[in-house]
């Protein structure tokens, strides 16, 4: 299914955030994560939590001094009556941590309590929502084990069972034939049946109108993207 323009723009911003982080430009990465979050297709876009967590985790890792705009953004998300509680809580917790660094311990404690209260008061319907993409891509090993599972019965290893599920996003790196594709994001479509140790992938953002963005990539040329957990 073709992505809408809103989805394409969202993916492009997320890709820019990831690329900036790996290039060492943490400030730009945080800004792009926040921009992607604000421009996500819906409140319940499946990986929207990862997007917000990308922003907040960069701030919490103290790569740079947070700006007043960062404080304002976190407060706006935390105070919003329209945002789901899980996002508001993430923002409140992060804001509390940053305020603690400034010595504002009482304000920090109030924010932590607000974050806990938001989770405690989330409605059942909201609790059942999926807010994170699969964490399979935290390692290539995890990706491989998700597609092929072995189980033990009576002390013997049985045949492999193939597990099928939706696409997931990883990042290309170390490509020599097409270095311009390094840092690009791809959907993992499944193992390449014609090449052991390789995966069928499709570019998340395909700027080449002559192709559909699909290609076979070796396992060692794929890595998980930020944020991880």
TrEMBL record:
Lineage: superkingdom: Eukaryota
Name of the protein described by the UniProt record: Uncharacterized protein
UniProt source species: Seminavis robusta
Lineage: Eukaryota, Sar, Stramenopiles, Ochrophyta, Bacillariophyta
């Amino acid at each position: 299914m073709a992505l809408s323009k809103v989805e394409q723009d969202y993916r492009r911003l997320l890709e820019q955030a990831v690329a900036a982080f790996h290039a060492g430009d943490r400030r730009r990465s945080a800004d792009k994560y926040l921009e992607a979050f604000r421009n996500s297709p819906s409140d319940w876009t499946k990986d929207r939590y990862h997007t917000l967590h990308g922003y907040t985790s960069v701030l919490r890792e103290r790569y740079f001094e947070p700006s007043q705009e960062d404080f304002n953004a976190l407060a706006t998300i935390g105070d919003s009556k329209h945002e789901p509680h899980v996002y508001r809580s993430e923002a409140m917790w992060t804001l509390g941590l940053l305020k603690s660094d400034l010595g504002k311990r009482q304000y920090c404690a109030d924010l932590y309590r607000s974050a806990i209260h938001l989770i405690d008061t989330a409605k059942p319907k909201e609790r059942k929502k999926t807010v994170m993409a699969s964490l399979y891509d935290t390692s290539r090993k995890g990706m491989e084990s998700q597609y092929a599972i072995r189980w033990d019965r009576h002390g013997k290893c049985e045949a492999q069972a193939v597990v099928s599920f939706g696409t997931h996003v990883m990042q290309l790196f170390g490509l020599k034939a097409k270095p311009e594709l390094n840092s690009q994001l791809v959907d993992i479509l499944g193992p390449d049946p014609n090449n052991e140790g390789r995966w069928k992938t499709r570019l998340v953002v395909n700027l080449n109108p002559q192709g559909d963005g699909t290609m076979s990539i070796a396992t060692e040329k794929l890595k998980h993207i930020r944020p991880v957990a």
